[in-house]
Amino acid sequence: MRFSDLFISYKIGLKDIKSTIPFTELPLYRKIFIIIFLTGIIISGILLVFKQIIFSFIPIGLSLISLIIFAIIDSKESNLSHMLENHYIPYSKKRMDMTIEVLKKYKINIENVDSLDMLITEAKYAQAECDFLSQFEKPFKTLGAIIIPVVVFISKKISEAATLTDILNMAALVIILILLIFSLIFSFVPIIKDLFYRDYNKYTELMYDLRQVKLFYAKEFS
After folding, report:
1. pLDDT of res. 222
2. In which domain, by residue range, is 192 found?
3. Given pLDDT bands bounded at 50, 70 and 90, which one contains residue 26?
4. Do 150 and 51 have their domain in common?
5. Which of 27, 78, 97, 105 shows a CA-CA span of 20 to 30 A to 38?
């Protein structure tokens, strides 16, 4: 019996628990918001395809207005209570029951906080092991340390022969490129993680659930 066996059982248990709320079970105001928001985005996209740029802003504006209205309505106490009682608490109970069942299956005493802490530590270690992107952290830092002086040197040489307008244009272009590169990196890293090592987030969920067992359930069984 190994930690990996427990982790696989936990993943199987997660698959049996729906983390999303079906559209048919959503409150009426949420259904209306989703319909308005998606309709606005779709219409805006169609208008952009037909190069109706000015008119395309109208449905986008309506979608944004609906988003603001939704945030206001959704934050009302009655709506929060409805979501809590009908969706959040039942989901949490199913998930915690599943986690406790897995722990019992592997003869983990949930009254023993030290055992739970050891599991959390092991999950952190396993998560770090599967994070292959961290292996590229040092090479990227080294590469950055080499590239930056080269870029500064080239920029200095170019600026000596360029006019003020050229320098400003070049600076603006560099800033845009840097922002674009960082945007692409921050956009694709989560996608890459989900594609190539989905277990990374599952380890995070396991650690979270183990902490919840320590906080709320260990006392009940003590």
Report:
1. 47
2. 109-221
3. confident
4. no
5. 78
d(C-alpha 207, C-alpha 44), whole Å:
42
- Residues 140 and 101 reside in one and the same domain: no
Residue type, 46: I
Which amino acid belongs to residue 63? S
> Are 146 and 83 members of one domain?
no
Q: Which residues of 1-21 are buried (b: 16+ CB within 10 A; e: fewer)?
A: eeeeebbebbbebbeeeeeee
Query: How far is 142 from 135, CA to CA, in rounded Å?
Result: 13
Cβ 85 vs Cβ 92: under 8 Å: no
When comparing pLDDT for 4 and 148, which is higher? 4
Label residue 155 by pLDDT band (50, 70, 90): low
Whether residue 119 sits in one domain with residue 88: no
First-residue to last-residue Cα distance in the chain: 26
DSSP string, 169-184: HHHHHHHHHHHHHHHH
Round the CA-based radius of gyration of the chain to a whole number and report it.
26
Residue 165 has pLDDT above 80, yes or no: no
Question: What dihedral do alpha carbons 150, 151, 157, 161 form, nearest 10°?
Answer: 160
Query: According to DSSP H, which parts of 87-163 are helical?
Result: 89-105, 113-130, 137-161
In total, how many domains does the chain have? 2
Instruction: Assess whether 142 and 155 both reside in one domain.
Output: yes
What Cα–Cα distance (Å) separates residue 182 from each residue in 142, 175, 189?
Answer: 18, 11, 11
Lowest mean pLDDT among 49-58, 76-85, 92-101, 151-160: 151-160
Provide the token pair at 75: 């934050």
